[in-house]
Design goal:
Layout lengths: L5 E6 L3 H9 L4 E4 L11 E4 L2 E4 L10 H10 L5 E4 L2 E5 L2 E4 L11 H12 L11 H26 L19 H9 L11 E4 L7 H12 L3 E3 L7 E3 L4 E3 L3 E8 L3 H5 L7 H9 L1 E12 L10 E3 L9 E4 H4 L9 E9 L10 H14 L9 E15 L4 H15 L2 E2 L11 H17 L1
The structure holds flavin-adenine dinucleotide.
Flavin-adenine dinucleotide binds next to helix 1, strand 17 and helix 12.
Length: 435
């Protein structure tokens, strides 16, 4: 008889897989396809210029999880204040938009305010995301900012998107919107006004810290091991015909995971194939100037004429993400095959993004790009289209019928941040440890 490789096999070594291994008391082994664990929470770079895969900050309303993330980093963590702006028609408006109305021309601010206060939009239940936006923030704010920004990041008409995920978008207190329109300073999205971030090494320091904790518990993190085939055995599950586990937890994206199994029912497979997502390009530019490029944390860019929907100023996250006197910027671009951006090669994409940053004044024509890199991620954003809920339920029920556990952003198919991933792995570790 084959000896079990571990009690629990964890498929995928992103933040979910690694945090689960760090938390589990039972013997566990993590199988990660790439050579560098961390998944979407990796950090890439060259010659002292570093960038995450999209700006990653640590924040949470879940204090237990936040404490756990911060503690995992030990001394390698600092607390910082968000300073995000929206680049709206050539001017910077405080983020979120409803907290920055006084930066708009007076007529626009009035229109945003009056349509927020006298909102005649359709009340709940809302059939789609667009209806929800009009109801929650009114016509003025929705037409000027929310609709163009969301069309750009989601690459879809918000009428074709569901509302299952909108609790992520906090609803502003009425007093804040009125105050912001008349110029009294307010802050929105308070749960992320202050955030934690590693001092060295970018956000990848967090999954690395969990990997170290997992190893310290005696678990294995196996890299360069792509899960391709899974079958049942008498004692549990066999992976790639060579490794056996009593329990399996998948943190891999659903479709590639289901493709490893034989005999998945047709409707489940079809549901998985229809799950929608957006891919991502992150263009990192290393600039030979720091001054003026580390004050904002991020600029949101609703203008559809520009490629990036968000520019993050990495040195506002940590001064160490670029050599002294230089700055690291990252531009996030959602994309899908056939949209003309997906097909661009890295140099063309980076040159276009650079020219656009100069055109809107984020960079000066005299700034020199001393480093550039483009990172490509296939699975970046879960999209809640109108068929989402039924499909995800069908798949989750099927996995439960097999006795398999799913944890993580693309394994559970939820638009979740690191904190919700860790909440899930914390709960799952307790469940598995109870036996
Ligand atoms: C642009 C962007 C910005 C974000 N900003 C924030 C933020 O500010 N704050 C925040 O808290 N969160 C943020 N997030 C979310 C955060 O990155 C994710 O919630 C989290 O990293 C997901 O971790 P995961 O382990 O569930 O999934 P992933 O990171 O997707 O990990 C899955 C792992 O499975 C591996 N894998 C896939 N197929 C196989 C296979 N066949 N065999 C073995 N391994 C396989 C992959 O290589 C990967 O390592 C952001 C995400 C994005 C895209």
């Amino acid at each position: 008889m084959r000896a079990m490789n571990a009690d629990v096999g964890i498929l995928g070594g992103g933040l979910s897989g690694l945090s689960l291994a760090a938390l589990l008391g039972r013997d566990a082994e993590v199988l990660e396809a790439t050579d560098t664990p961390g998944g979407l929470a990796r950090t890439f770079g060259r010659n002292g210029f570093l960038s995450d895969i999209g700006g990653h900050i640590m924040f949470s309303k879940d204090q237990e999880v936040l404490d756990l993330m911060v503690a995992a980093l030990g001394d390698n963590v600092a607390k910082r204040r968000r300073n995000n702006k929206i680049l709206y028609q050539g001017r910077y408006v405080k983020y979120p938009f409803e907290n920055g109305l006084d930066a708009l021309p007076k007529e626009d601010a009035y229109d945003c305010l009056i349509s927020f206060l006298q909102n005649d939009a359709k009340p709940p239940p809302h059939a789609n995301f667009e209806e929800w936006m009009y109801f929650t923030l009114g016509r003025g704010i929705t037409d000027r900012y929310l609709l163009p920004y969301n069309r750009k990041i989601w690459k879809r008409d918000p009428k074709q998107m569901g509302t299952e995920w909108v609790e992520r978008v906090p609803r502003p207190p009425l007093e804040d919107v009125v105050k912001s329109a008349i110029g009294i300073e307010t802050e929105g999205y308070l749960h992320q006004l202050y955030f934690h971030y590693p001092i060295h090494g970018g956000i990848e320091s967090l999954p690395r810290a969990f990997a170290a904790q997992a190893r310290a518990r005696g678990h294995r993190v196996v890299t360069g091991c792509r899960v391709e085939k899974i079958r049942r055995s008498a004692g549990g599950w066999v992976v790639n015909d060579e490794r056996e586990y009593r329990h399996l937890v998948t943190t891999m994206p659903i479709l590639p995971f289901l493709l490893t199994l034989a005999d998945v029912p047709g409707p489940v497979m079809e549901a998985a194939r229809k799950l929608e997502y957006n891919s991502l390009r992150v263009v990192m530019l290393g600039i030979d100037r720091r001054e003026g490029l580390d004050e904002l944390t991020a600029a949101y860019v609703p203008d559809p004429a520009l490629l990036a929907h968000r520019v993050c100023f990495n040195n506002a996250f940590s001064p160490e993400l670029a050599p002294p006197g230089c700055a690291s910027l990252q531009c996030e671009i959602t994309t899908n095959p056939g949209d003309g951006v997906f097909e661009l090669d890295d140099d063309t994409l980076a040159a276009r993004v650079h020219a656009e940053l100069v055109s809107v004044g984020i960079l000066r024509a005299t700034d020199r790009v001393v480093e550039q890199m483009v990172q490509r991620e296939r699975f970046a954003y879960v999209v809640y289209d109108l068929g989402y809920a039924a499909r995800v339920k069908l798949i989750a029920d099927y996995l439960a019928s097999l006795g398999m556990h799913a944890a993580g952003r693309f394994a559970e198919y939820r638009y979740i941040n690191m904190d919700a991933c860790i909440r899930r792995t914390l709960d799952l570790s307790r469940e598995l440890d109870r036996g």
